[in-house]
Amino acid sequence: METSKPENNSHILEVKGLCTYFYSIHGIAKAVNNVSFSLKKGEILGIVGESGCGKSVTSLSIVRLIESPPGRIAEGEIVFDGTDLLTLSEQEMRDIRGDKISMIFQEPMTSLNPLYTIGNQISEMFIRHNGYDRKKALEASIEMLKKVQIPHPEARVKEYPHQMSGGMRQRVMIAMALACNPEILIADEPSTALDVTIQAQVLDLMLQLKKTYGTAIILITHDLGVIAEVAEKVAVMYAGQIVEEAEVEEIFDDPLHPYTRSLLKSIPILGQRFESEGRVELNEIKGIVPSLYELPQGCNFYPRCPEAQPKCNEAGIPIISTKDNRKVRCILYTSG
Question: What does pTM read for this prediction?
């Protein structure tokens, strides 16, 4: 299928009204419910929110890796390079995955096959998408390990995943994801379970590779510190919906949605203490996340919101654009 390449300022990816539901004997879990966002070439979009808010399901929906049953993409469009990915066959999606759109999964130990060497697993990318023979693919795999700063790559390609540390396995995942120079890299919690030093190295590596290849990145995380460090635009998710979207500076300097403000207040500040007890003060978001099977009829954050009004729970709250071109899903910013 022929598609024209987007210009640098155009959107390489547009997600429109995406709904991904899971069907069970308990009902329908609306894991992703009417989510829309866009991504420009070379841009880093951070998707942030509490565990279970729909971040990972959104990323898996983009590459159509939702397990069915019980999951299904019920509505929406995922437009990549002018083509709606939801209209493609499974074979056509295989040609795109790893080549045009790559993904780094949360836990590399469960994503890498323990029965095959690192070299075999990276080589598969070059063989499948570039048509390399085994020898050329192995040479290319060694070069990729060099690019992600793994020492002694000629020896490492012969090792199995269990012979590497968590940081090394994550670098291998990045090498696999970038093997075919994809246009979009989806990184789902790429620094989870890594110590602070290795986490910083992985994030720096992603930034270097983005700068070198111009790859657009969707960074999925619950860590607002990571978002502040690397993202350019931020989408805040809660209970399957995006509640706020803005440039990273705007999110941290002037958050609009009560949930975003609550998230930022929950970050511990060095030196902040209870005056009487000498302990670090941590703010919490009171209440619990609603069940995806029984969402409120209005704003999903309504039961926990410190600024809630009765009309917040009367009907679904649409996401609106403010006068300064920010997006927020809150009745406080609607007219009338």
Answer: 0.85
Distance from C-alpha of 60 to C-alpha of 20, rounded to nearest angstrom: 10
Residues in the chain predicted with pLDDT less than 70, given as ranges, are 1-9, 108-109, 192-195, 268-282, 335-336
Q: pLDDT tens across 115-144, in order?
A: 999 999 999 889 988 889 999 999 999 998
Both tokens of residue 266? Answer: 């929950």
Specify whether the CB–CB gap between 258 and 329 falls below 8 A. no
- Number of C-beta neighbours around residue 17 at 10 A: 11
- The confidence score (pLDDT) of residue 83 equals 94
- Domains, the chain, ranges and CATH? 11-100+182-333 (3.40.50.300)
Within the chain, where are the H helices? 55-62, 90-96, 108-111, 118-130, 134-147, 153-156, 166-177, 196-213, 224-230, 248-253, 258-265
> Is residue 332 within a helix (H) or strand (E), and if so which, with residue range?
none
Q: Which long-range contacts (CB under 8 A, 24 or more apart) does 67-70 make?
A: 69/23, 70/22, 70/23, 70/24
